[in-house]
Design goal:
- The chain is built from 12 helices and no strands.
- By secondary structure, it is an all-alpha fold.
- The protein has 2 domains: 116 residues, Rna Polymerase Sigma Factor, Chain: A (Orthogonal Bundle), CATH 1.10.1740; 104 residues, PhyR, sigma-like (SL) domain (Butyryl-CoA Dehydrogenase, subunit A, domain 3).
- Helix 10 packs across helix 11.
- The longest helix has 23 residues.
- GO terms for molecular function: DNA binding; sigma factor activity.
- This is Sigma-70 family RNA polymerase sigma factor.
C-alpha cells in the first residue's frame, strides 16, 4: 500500500513537467528508444516510466486539452492515463503503438467522465455552459434542447443513405456489420458514411463556435432521450 501511495505521489510530481521548462535530463531521456523504455517499464523501473512520460506526455496533454479545453482537466487525464500505464506495466507489449495505447486509455477516461456527468442534468447543463462560454457565435442562453434541435437539423441535411447509416450507428448503437446486411452495402461503405458525417457535423459545429467535444457529448445522450426515425 505504501509503495502504491509513493508511486501516486511520484506521478503527481512528474505532472509538473507541463509547468516547467524542459531540462537537459529530459532531453537526454527522449533519446532512449521506445522499446528499451517499454522493456524497462515491464520490469517496473521508475526511470523507464519517467522516460516514457517525458517523451509522450506533451502530446497526450495537447490531445486531451483539444478535447476538454481545460488545462486542469487535461492534466488530470494525463496523470490518470499514466497511472493506468503503470498498473498494466507487465503486460504492455513492445510490438504495438505506445502512442495509440495512450490515446485509447485517455479517450476511455474522457468518455467515462462524460457518461457520469450525463446522469445528472444539472451537471450536464453546467458542462455545456463551460464548453461554450468562450464562444462568440453561440449564446450562453441557448439550452441543451436548442443544441439537440440544431444537431437534428444538420442530420436531416445529410444524403438519405448517410443519414440512415448515421442514425443506426451513432444513435441506435447498431453494429456496422448488421447495418451493412440490412442495407445491402459493405462495411467499408458504413465506415465511409460515418467518417463523412462526423466531419460534416464537426465543421458545422466549429462554424457555430462550439467545441467538437460538445458534439460527441450530445450524440452520446441523444439515443437515450429520443428514438430515431426508421427509414422504410
Amino acid at each position: 500500500m505504501g509503495f502504491e501511495c509513493d508511486f501516486t505521489i511520484f506521478v503527481s510530481n512528474v505532472i509538473s513537467f507541463h509547468k516547467q521548462e524542459v531540462t537537459s535530463a529530459m532531453v537526454d531521456s527522449n533519446n532512449n528508444s521506445e522499446i528499451t523504455l517499454i522493456k524497462g517499464l515491464n520490469e517496473g523501473k521508475h526511470s523507464s516510466f519517467k522516460g516514457l512520460y517525458v517523451k509522450y506526455s506533451p502530446q497526450l496533454y495537447s490531445f486531451s486539452y483539444d478535447l476538454l479545453k481545460s488545462k486542469d482537466a487535461a492534466e488530470d487525464i494525463v496523470q490518470e492515463t499514466f497511472i493506468k500505464i503503470w498498473d498494466r506495466r507487465s503486460v504492455i507489449k513492445t510490438t504495438g503503438s505506445f502512442r495509440s495505447l495512450l490515446k485509447t486509455i485517455a479517450l476511455n477516461l474522457i468518455r467515462h467522465s462524460y457518461n457520469n456527468l450525463s446522469k445528472e442534468k444539472d451537471l450536464k447543463d453546467e458542462l455545456l455552459v463551460q464548453l461554450v462560454r468562450d464562444s462568440e457565435k453561440f449564446s450562453l442562453n441557448d439550452s441543451y434542447e436548442d443544441l439537440l434541435k440544431k444537431l437534428e437539423e444538420l442530420i436531416e441535411k445529410m444524403p438519405e443513405e448517410r443519414k440512415l447509416v448515421f442514425r443506426k450507428k451513432k444513435l441506435e448503437g447498431e453494429k456496422a456489420k448488421d447495418i451493412a446486411r440490412d442495407l445491402n452495402i459493405s462495411v467499408k461503405m458504413i465506415e465511409y458514411h460515418i467518417t463523412k458525417a462526423m466531419k460534416y457535423l464537426r465543421e458545422e459545429f466549429k462554424a457555430l463556435g462550439i467545441s467538437s467535444i460538445v458534439l460527441h457529448f450530445i450524440l452520446s445522450n441523444m439515443g437515450k432521450r429520443r428514438r430515431p426515425r426508421t427509414a422504410k
